[in-house]
Amino acid sequence: MPKIVSNYVKEGDSLRKLEKYEEAIECYDKALKMNPQDASAWFSKGFSLEKLGKHEEAIECYDKVLQIDSKNAPAWQNKGVSLEKLGKHEEAIKCYDKALEIDPQYASAWFNKGFSLGELEKYE
């Protein structure tokens, strides 16, 4: 990744950690304008959008990550979280299952899958 793109992602990550999500998204957008294949920028943009309650936009970002790297367990897991927040429990479970297929020890995916199953009253 070119250094300038990396700097925008790092700056965005710093802003995201300060909960300045809109400013972070601006940095990720700059990075993505220069390198649309930067999975880490797409992921971080999705996370920031999720924190702003923009779940459909977050899902679009996670989908971009998964187009670049279909074995990205955190992207599957976070996509599931966004789907869950939209009330799409069945779709969320499919995402958690994909994350667990990649990483069977992924605790967050197990937890969130259990939550989604509970929401569907599938207690067994």
Q: Explain this structure to me?
A:
With 124 residues, the chain is mainly α. Helix content is 77%, strand content 0%. The protein has seven helices and no strands. The chain has helices at 3-17, 21-34, 39-51, 55-68, 73-85, 89-102, 107-119. Helix 2 packs antiparallel against helix 3 (39-51). The longest helix has 15 residues, at 3-17. It is elongated, with a radius of gyration of 15 Å. The termini are far apart. The mean pLDDT is 94.
Low-pLDDT residue spans: none
Number of strands: 0
Per the principal axes of the C-alpha atoms, what is the gross shape?
A: elongated
Give the percentage of residues in beta strands. under 5%
Which sequence of SSEs, written as H and E, runs from N to C? HHHHHHH
- End-to-end C-alpha gap: 46 Å
Q: Enumerate how many helices there are, as a single number.
A: 7
Instruction: Please compute the radius of gyration using only Cα atoms.
Output: 15 Å
Secondary structure: helix percent: over 70%
What composes the largest sheet?
none
Derived from helix and strand composition plus strand pairing, the structural class reads mainly alpha
Q: What is the overall pLDDT average? A: 94
Topology readout:
Blueprint: H1 3-17, H2 21-34, H3 39-51, H4 55-68, H5 73-85, H6 89-102, H7 107-119
What key attributes describe this structure?
124 residues, mainly alpha, 0% strand
Concise summary:
With 124 residues, the protein is an all-alpha fold.
